[in-house]
Every structure is written in C-alpha cells, then in structure tokens.
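Researcher: Before we compare anything, I want clean individual predictions. No alignment, no superposition, just each chain on its own. First chain goes here; please echo the sequence and then give the structure tokens.
Model: Echoing the first chain and its structure:
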Amino acid sequence: MHEFQVFTRWRPQPPNDTSSEIPRQYETHSNNSNLTSINLTPPTPKHKPWKSNPAFTQVFESTTTNETIFSALIPPTLPLVLTGQTCNFFAYGHSGSGKSHTIIGYDFAHDPRNFGLCLSTARALFAALDDESPNSPSEQIGLGLRMYELRKNTAFDLLNHRTKCHIRAGYDGATHLRGETELLPDGKVRVRPIVTRPCWRVEELRAALLAGLALRAVGSSTVHDQSSRTHAVVEVEVVTRALIDARDAVVERQSELVPVAKYATDVYIEESLKAVVKTEEGVYVPNPERGVDQARVDAAEARKREFEERVRRAEEFVEEVRGRKQEGRPALGGKFVFVDLAGSEYFREGMGAAATAGMAKQSPQEQQEGRQINTDLLALKEVIRARAMKQSRIPFRSSPLTMVLRSHFLGSNMEDSYSAMILTVSPSSAQFSATMNTLKYGNLVGAAGSEMKEEEKKKKKKKKTMR
C-alpha cells in the first residue's frame, strides 16, 4: 500500500454552465506502480498545455457517484483502522468543485449512494464492529465523533456549540486543542479538549454530523456563494464507554492539579521574597531576620507531585484501556480522519500571469483569509512531501493546520499508515486555471512518493547487481 495516494475526481458540468469541457487525456505507467499522468489541452491560446508526472492512483470521471468513491478508497483501509491505525483523507480543490460533496455529502436521509465518505465510512465501521453482546456496558464498542473547523489560528468545536478552542504545542511537541477555561469550585480550573461524541448506532452519528454541519462557517466568495472559508476536520474513532470515561478522568485530574500547582508556585515566590531585603542602594541581600521556610516549600511541592502523579496514573490508565486486547474484537483508538480543506483558489505557488489570467478578483476579506489558507496548503504540501521522502524533520509547525494534523500523521506506524488526497476539479473551460492549479498541487504531492519508490527500486537493483 502506498504511503500517500492521490486521486482526481471530475465534477459534472453545472446545467447553467454553457462553456465547453476541458480536453484531457490520461496515460497509465505500468513501470511506475501503474500511476496515471493527466494531460490538459488549453481551451484558448492564452493558456499553455500541461501534463503531469505519473502521480495519480486513479481518475474518476464526472459520472462517478459517491458510492464508487467510497468503494475505491475505504474498504482497503478498514483492516488498518480495526487494528488501531489512523487513515487520513483530504479533499483539495477550488470552491464549488465538489470537496464537501465528496467528504461530507448532502443527501443524508435518502440515497446511501450519495452519502459522503464520513457517513458511508461510519456505516461500514458499525457493520464491521458487529458487537451486540459486550461483556459489560462499558465495553460496548461504538464510534467517537469529533468535528471541528480551523480558521486562521483558531479551532471551533462544532459538536460543542462552536466553542472557540486554542491550538497549543505541548512541551513534548504534541498539539493540543483546548477550549475555554472553566472556573470550578475549590479553585479548580478545567480546560476541556475537543468534545468526543460517543455514538452507538449509525443514526446517532448521522444526527450529530448534521448538527455539527449546521454550525460550520461559510461565506460568499467570488467563486462560490457557499464557499467554505475554513478547513473542516471530522474524526471517526473506534471507542468504548470505558475509554471515553478514562479520558474524561484525565481532564478531571488535570483540573484538580491546577490550584495545587498554583499554590506551590505562590508559596515558593512568597518564601523567596521574604528571604531577601532591599538595601538603600537598591540591592537585594539575604534577610538576616528570616530565611526561606524550606519545610513549607517542600510540603507544597510534595502535594503538587502527588497530584501530578494522579494525572500520570490517569493518563496511563487511558493507554491501558486502549491497549486491552480481546480475541476477535477490533483495537480501540483506530480512526478515520477526513479533512475538507478550504477552497484552493488562493493557492498560486508557481503560477505566472497566464495561469492566473481569468481568475475572479478577490475582495479584501478574501485576500486576508486567502493568505492564511495559502500558508496552510503550502505547509500541508511540504509535510506530505517530507513524509513521502522519509526526511528526518517534518515541518508540522509551519501552520496551525499541520500542527493539528501532526498526531494523525504520526498516529500510525510509518510502514502501515495510509493517507490519500482527493483532488476535486471542474471540467468547465471557464475554470481551466483553477483546475490546472489543483492538479499541479496534486502532482507535487503524488510525485514525491513516486520518486521515493523509484529511488528504492534503484537501490534494491544496485544491491542485487553488487551481489
């Protein structure tokens, strides 16, 4: 299985679009893992022809249904998730090209063939879990749903009333999404992470998904009147009630630690200040009448360590619950991550005047939003390429988007992990520039893995020759 696969999906021509379709040809390269290259013929002389490298795993034409997309992408990855791995799927394309239709879908109530990848995958996971007789209610297997959107440097929890969350990098390099601070009795301070909504039936997950979608921010753009101005992230994780409860316990232990840790710091500062005096020259010297009450400082620090140990034990219990292996049951913590990226009409790396010709003029607000979106998409490309090339340093901290995705990319063993990008493009000749630039982005992402595999083939061949 490829480390990162890139697919292309052509959307149907809108009924009110009278422009011609973009002429295109495909070539499958059997000597390059059967990857496909795409050749675009420009509709007017002001554009130049363009041909990609062998970078695309599969190309879906405009007649393809969501059901076909699901069948091609998800079933091969189900075994990975059921063994505890993480699989990531990105939808990339300009506004109106079909990203949200592919990832989220619009027909949630009627025809399953139109379900987006999120809901279709949840149905498949529930069918695979098939856990009707758990040993106890706490061991019943279900799916945990997390749904949030990223806008500039902030995340918004779509399953918790669109609560504003802060993106923070921890001391260990991990990224944390923390909500607003809650002040509790006895000085406790609780900061909840993104909410996980446990679902035990597909209908529960469907209802939660719809509720979250209703809170997603959209706005008018020069390309699309319901254009997503944010990146939407949907996580579907294999969980039990015991795992959810264990994670909640960590949050509670952390809230208990905050006032104790603050008191220990206050005691240390207070004792340190009492142990010095200021001379007439403005110099601080040891206080001859009073030194540091070390016993008081030690007692406060000991209590702090006690509460830190409670947090550590709670975190270890989460790993213990997640690591419990039962014969014939799927591993906990495996997840699908779906990312509906913001419109790529802002991404202009490597474009000249000809490539940008005909693009609609952007408003000042779009330009401001576009700068952050552009930063995010550039950073995502570099992260994907760095991982495909197996570089020692992966630039996750280049943008808030890649910081958030860090744990998902690293949530699997390198050899077993799987990620894919679905490029959604328009066949309309009026959208030639936007379509070509979407394919250019996918070409850069997909070609990196192809180049790496070719290098590995050459190395293996060289070793055989040397023998």
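Researcher: Okay. Second chain, same rules.
Model: Second chain and its structure:
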Amino acid sequence: MPTSVMEYARVIPSVSSLLPLYASFSTSLMLLRNAYHELVPEKLESFLTSKLENYFRRTRSKPSYDTFVIDDSWEGQHRNKLIDISIFYLSTKIGHKNKTIKIGKFKGRKGIMAGLVNGEEIVDIYEGIEITWYFDCRKDEDGGDEYFELSFEDKYREKVFNEYLDHVIRTYKAMTKEKRVLRIYSRDCNGWDWIEFQHAATFDTLAMDYELKRAITDDLDRFLARKDYYKKICRAWKRGYLLYGPPGTGKSSLIAAMANYLNYNVYNLELANISSESDLKSAMLHAGRKSIIVIEDIDCNSGVHDRSKSDNSESDNSNNVRQFTLSALLNCIDGLWSSCAEERIIAFTTNHKEVLDPALLRPGRMDMHIHMSYCTTEGFRVLVSNYLDIKDHPLFEEIDGLIRSMEVTPASLAEELMKSDVADVALGEVLNFLKQKRMEKDKIDEEKLC
C-alpha cells in the first residue's frame, strides 16, 4: 500500500472512538430540549412558531405583477377597438368557473354569445403565461364606460404586450373572418350607435344601366388599390361621391350596394342633428375606417347653398338656423381634419344639385358625380329579374315603349311589380300604371298648348 494511503488511514477515527462522542451529543440535545420545554410555555412556543412561519413566508420570493388597462378614457380619440375585440375573444374563454355569465344575441353576432358580468374575472393561459382578465364598468354622471384589466407577472410584460395582444387580435379576426357583419350607425347627443346593416342591395340588383354600374365599380376598385398612391401625392385616402336626381331613383340603394361591395360600415350623418362646428368635427372624427359616411339630402341644409345667390341667403335668416358654416364642412371633408381618418367614402345625396355651392362640388370633395336618372328599359329588365325571376315576356315590348316616352322612377315600377308573384299579373299592373301615367302626361301637354 502506498505511503500516502497509509497516512490517510491513520488519521480516520475508528468507529469505537466515535460512539462516545455520539452518545455525548445526543445527551446534550435531550437536555436542551427538556430545558426549552420547561422554560418556554406552550402558548409562547405556538406564538413564536407562527411568527417565524409568517416571517419566512413573507421573505420567500413572490412574483411581482403588472396590469394593462383597456378602456375608452382618452378624450377626443376614436373608440378603443380593443374593448370590442376583447369582448369577442373572451366569449370563447368563459368556463365552468364563472358561476355568473351574461348571455344574449349581441350586436355583430348571428348566434348566442357569452360575456362577463361586472366584477367577474377569467384566467387565460398563453404559452405557459397566466393572464387574468377583470371586467367592470365605471359609473359617472354621463353613464358608464366598460373596461378590462389584464394582470400578469411583470417578467412577461414585453411578451404580453408584443405577442399576447396580437394573438387576441388575430383570434378575433379569425372569428369574424367568414362574414363580416356590417353595421349602420346613427348619431344622437350621446354619439354614434349602431345596428346590423341588412340591406341586400348589390350592383347586380340595381335598376341602373350596365355601363354606369361598371363605371362606379371600376372607380371603387381603383380607390381600394391606391392606398400608396394617395400617400405619395400627400392626400387623405378617401373619395367623395355625389348622387343626384329626383326622389325614387335609387340613391339609397346605390349606397347600400357600395357598402356591400366594399364590405364597409355605413355612418348616416344627419346635418340637422349637428349642433355646432365642433360637433361636426367630432362626428366626422369618430366615424371609423372602412366606412361610408352618408350625408343625405345635403341641399336641405341652407349653409351649403350657392353663396352667389342672394335669395338663398335671405331665406337663411327666416326659418333655417346655420349650426355650422360651409367652410367648416369643407374642412372636415377636404381640409386638415379630413386627414385624421382614412379609407373612407363620403357619399352625398341631393334632389337639387343646382342649389349647391360650387366649392362643395369640386373634385377632392365630390370626386364623382352620379346622375340617378329615371328608369330605363335596361333598368326595368333588372327589376323584373329581381322581383319575378324571369328574363323575357310578351308584354316587354309595349312596356318598353311607354318607359321610353315618360319619366318614371324605378321605385314606382318596383311597387307595381310587388302586387303579384305571378308574372302575367304583375306585368299587367305595370302596363296599366304606365298607360295611366301616359294619359295624365298627354292631358297636361294639351292644357299647356291651350
């Protein structure tokens, strides 16, 4: 055996020499334990034990939490879309742990949805991260604002902000991708409110000449494809349309067809409900992207009449009160304020284009002027196809001759077609209606000659 190993062996104590040491140590521990129980009462021992446990529990490393708040408290800004997105997203996360849930047929959904009630929370897991959502509503004198709070360990702050919220948005888009439910908005003193937009009009169903419909759809397609071009030429990505013509020629149906073609929401802005210039700016600012802002019967507002005609300005002082100036409206649709929101269509309708101020009619404000004329034979064929599902009929020739000789609106012909589902009966009603209109026209012409 090597010398070094022998030396190590000599320094290791033997088992017989360790036994007395162990016995002495055990005796000392027993004496200390007995002394402790004799000196420390049982209640004091329990108190000291609990204090020590609490101390070590507090000093044990506990995770720190951060909170994101999703609310609508930013003054003057658009509605925080994350609120609606979160409502949709969480509707799929509600489980048996939520004893009280809100259910109903909510706006924007075809089926039943589940939602959180005030004060409820739900836990979502994303890539091992636990995110707690809390929902409530702040009450104030103006009503209440919904808000969400997201709590999570602070070490995941960047991941939650950069990845998890993107995941929430992507999930929402996937949920609504199959068919976007369009909305039509109306405005009162409390702002914009909406219901589902269910108008079924399409360009195929419009009683208009084919060439005009094609010109409109081509213009819309060009608008959608030119986002970068608008940016290049330093113009807001928007386009204005003026729909003018007599009542009943299909102006509202054309707007509905445009909305369905573009998949845009509709904002119906009634100028009569605008109280001031600041109210007008607020209304335009809070209308969302991918929308058609509709200003119907714009000629009914005296503030937009041709300023060169003195008779209009005189009538303004009698019954019509101007809540805003023409310059304010122009600034909202083609000035500095128009750049605050993009990807929007502004559609104006009027029965009397000639009374509008030329400043309102120029390109950049009303880019495309669409004359909604009386019904043509081609438009009538579309109506018959829509209402009776036929392409030809023996009465067409006589009806076409009467339509060419008179001014009759698509709406009036559609009303006659609705009187029966039987083609012979419905077209007979149209023919009688046109003959009666022709007799009235001939009588008026004879009176004029006399």
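Researcher: What stands out in the second chain?
Model: The first strand starts at residue 65 and ends at 70. Additionally, The CA atoms of residues 96 and 358 lie 64 Å apart.
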